[in-house]
Amino acid sequence: MALLQRGSCGTMNPPGKYDESSDIHIRSGISEEEKAAVKKRKELVLTTLRNLGLNANKAPVVSVLVSGGGLRAAIACQGILSELSNVGLLDLVTYLAGVSGSTWCMSSLYTKSDGWQNLQKAENELRRRLQKDKWNFSHALTGLCMAAKRDDYSLTDFWSYTLVYFLTKELLDANLSGSRSQSETGTVPYPIFATVDHYFKRKGKEKTLKSWFEFTPHEAGYPKLDLSTPGAYVSTTLYGSKFKAGKLIQQEAERDLSYLRGLFGSALADRNSILTSIRDFLLKFIHQDSTEKQNLLGLYPKEIEGKGLVLEGDILKTIMEELVTLVYIFTTGGDYLPVLESLHFKMAGYKDFSQSQRMITKMLQHSRQTSSDQQRQSILDLLTEVLKHDAKEERNIRPFVQFIWKTFKCLLFWTWGTTNNFLYKYGDIKDKDLTDRENLYLMDAGLDINCAYPLVLPPVRDTDIILSFDFSEGDPFLTIKDTAKYCKACNIPFPPVDEDKLDQDAEAPSDFYIFEREKGPVVMHFPLFNKVNCGSPEVIKKRRETFATFRFDVYSDDEVRQLLEDAKANVRNNKERILGKICTLARAAS
């Protein structure tokens, strides 16, 4: 099984306290390290063009964008990259930018020393892994209990070790910074991983420049705060470390790519579906026994009056099951009072739960007269009492109990993507939205625009040609339409988009669309399922249903091969169009 693959250049920075100038960068444009990497990549692109017989002096910047779409997107992304390599187009690509599920494929490739050298081999390994490997309970539980020791534990950690690991059958303990050397040689496209800041999404400000937060091998941060304000970055190795007023005051270990995969791909379904998935995994952790769990939980026999010798772990298991139901019903808006009554009954006779019973009695008496926020706090207080989780005595909390309690708390407050804000109290930035928050809450960029257009467009990067491979489950043109609105709101040049025409094609699109104007990038758009590779609207509809984003069962190898082939066909059938446009722009620039 492909577990815990460590990049040859991966770094694990040990926690520690520092009192020195931080590594925060406030600037317009990309980093010097990225400039150097892109310069080398452009040299390779130029050589490739000349080998094709084109007498070019300047290489156009080609950005491949791969959209979100869960495991469907991860598999299709592999197919796209394999075929771009197979037809000789990959060496013309400067940037590869991904959202959500596509980043699962990207992260796997960039952490393997030979991931890009033989993409057919990588494709075969993907197929083998999806068919042969399994989600490992002990690996997941151990990883979660370790993650729960961090102050910034959130549902993103839970998601990483449960659903993302379950779908991809892969854990990556390598770090993104470990792919620097590979990126710096110019032999691979420079990678960009997209997220958005939940604060701006919640405030209705998602169609702004500063809502986007990117990760590259060298830096993480806001590419642009607004048209007149530079971007703000921190070294990728320091993402998650504590800063105040521009000073690094507590360095934390760099987050590994298993965590980042959960961060990048955290929005695969509606809230209730996600809650149901989390509930089911929590019950699995509580029900299933293992040596690791026994060590993490600690099982001690207790003499209970009227019940004889009872295993403490069995008591906790029964109560935890009820607590999972309590939190799930509350967070989904159901009537949780019957669960409280059941809890009260099952706690009878156990002195350890006498205070909890009194709290439940009070909750049953007053819940109808309290607000939702007050009810949420009362439930949290009950959870804290039941699990005996006192933050002041956290070192004495058994790891499994700590993990369960922190997950319950994150569920109640729907906490995702928690990290320390490197711009906290940073005096050189006047925007209080950015500097007053001690924590950031990052989320899947697919909740905003399901494709990373804002990260390859001006004023962040100057792309000449965008190859947009859309793996969305629904409208295959939504990313284009959303980007056009984003660019209009931010005054960024973008080709005109005829929404009426695209709406007419949405149910049965073609395999190729081009959007261009005199100023701005050329956009070539490729819907995954289309009339060319599927043959009919009925087959397109069937494919979309078969490969739903929140599909929870295992893909058969035939289904994986079908997805790969559909993706490859979009490259193979449009090779000449892509190459022709790249050559046209190269000639014009020369």
TrEMBL record:
Molecular function, one GO term: phospholipase A2 activity
Catalysed reaction, written as an equation: 1-hexadecanoyl-2-(5Z,8Z,11Z,14Z-eicosatetraenoyl)-sn-glycero-3-phosphocholine + H2O = 1-hexadecanoyl-sn-glycero-3-phosphocholine + (5Z,8Z,11Z,14Z)-eicosatetraenoate + H(+); a 1,2-diacyl-sn-glycero-3-phosphocholine + H2O = a 1-acyl-sn-glycero-3-phosphocholine + a fatty acid + H(+)
Record's keyword annotation contains Hydrolase: yes
Disordered: region residues: 1-23
Protein keywords: Hydrolase, Lipid degradation, Lipid metabolism
Taxonomy, superkingdom: Eukaryota
Name of the protein in its database record: PLA2c domain-containing protein
